[in-house]
Amino acid sequence: MIEADGLTKRYGAKVAVQDLSFTVRPGRVTGFLGPNGAGKSTTMRMMLGLDQPTSGTVRIDGKRYAELKQPLRAVGALLDARWVHPNRSARTHLRWLAKSNRLSPARADEVLGMVGLDEVGHRNAGGFSLGMSQRLGLAAALLGDPGVLLFDEPVNGLDPEGIHWIRRFMQGLAAEGRTVLVSSHLLSEMSLTAEELVVIGRGQLIAQCSTREFVDSAGDGAVLVRSPQIAQLREALTAVGIGVRDSEPGSLLAEQTTTERIGELAAQRGIVLHELTAQRGSLEDAFMQMTNQAVEYQTGLGSEAPAAAGVAR
Ligand SMILES: Nc1ncnc2c1ncn2[C@@H]1O[C@H](COP(=O)(O)OP(=O)(O)OP(=O)(O)O)[C@@H](O)[C@H]1O
């Protein structure tokens, strides 16, 4: 579990992270989203003790990073996949990391196998493709078999196969009961990967909720209904005060309601339904709507945007 409590980081006059409180729970992948410069990397660096908070705390399984006796056994991270010695083999790189963290060198081969690099473990890491480097970065993060994993933009620059592989891998780690926090700019990818979201803008919390709730919060509550008895359905809906908009022939859009309400109403009146679909936006729509106020610099004369609108829970 990761717990941020009133986390604040200032660089001189610049406030990178401001009074940020959220919890990341084990057993599912949590996406960490925010526009450029929102403070995601700074927050992750504070989780790993690479930056000190100006105020507030962030705890990994109840402890600050500095209090962890063997940090690599508690938290693993992939921040920059290119951080390897180019003339060292992947295996030597991992063994060196293991040794300097008092972990068994045999663990290097185990993690190489876990990420599918056992065949190329003897090759110089400097010659690895981006996808292979990302896998090596994941292997390094897993060396201490940690319960908490942090990934900063792990799929940046990868091809669809690489993205798919990392998605399944992260979901597998979460299914083993680990806490997995992953930042990404790729929103459609994040909607497939993450069950939970922490969304920040200008260093402040915008939302912490399930991906489903986040997407729903941006929807307009309309429900598409298709029925061979559309006239009767329209009458039944307007009779109970539900607003109706036209859609394709044989269909209508019921406003500000739920699929449950319409399904039950149709059943009571004996009206046959062929389709009942809540109209959802995409994670992209929700993100744009929620972070619109929170982009660091709005277009137009570089004026700063107002503070993030608070839908945080
Ligand atoms: N060492 C530093 N000195 C001064 N300002 C910094 C420093 N590190 C980050 N910042 C500023 O803090 C803010 C948050 O940066 P951060 O890199 O954490 O955002 P981010 O959400 O990770 O952005 P991106 O998605 O673009 O990587 C930015 O305005 C950035 O310019």
From TrEMBL:
InterPro entries documented for this protein: AAA+_ATPase (IPR003593), ABC_transporter-like_ATP-bd (IPR003439), ABC_transporter-like_CS (IPR017871), P-loop_NTPase (IPR027417)
SMART domains in alphabetical order: AAA (SM00382)
GO MF annotation terms: ATP binding; ATP hydrolysis activity
Keywords: ATP-binding, Nucleotide-binding, Transport
Alphabetized SUPFAM superfamilies for the sequence: P-loop containing nucleoside triphosphate hydrolases
Residue ranges occupied by any ABC transporter domain in the UniProt entry: 2-227
PANTHER family: ABC TRANSPORTER, ATP-BINDING PROTEIN
Family listed: Belongs to the ABC transporter superfamily.
Annotated protein name in UniProt: ATP-binding cassette domain-containing protein
Upper lineage: Bacteria, Bacillati, Actinomycetota, Actinomycetes, Pseudonocardiales
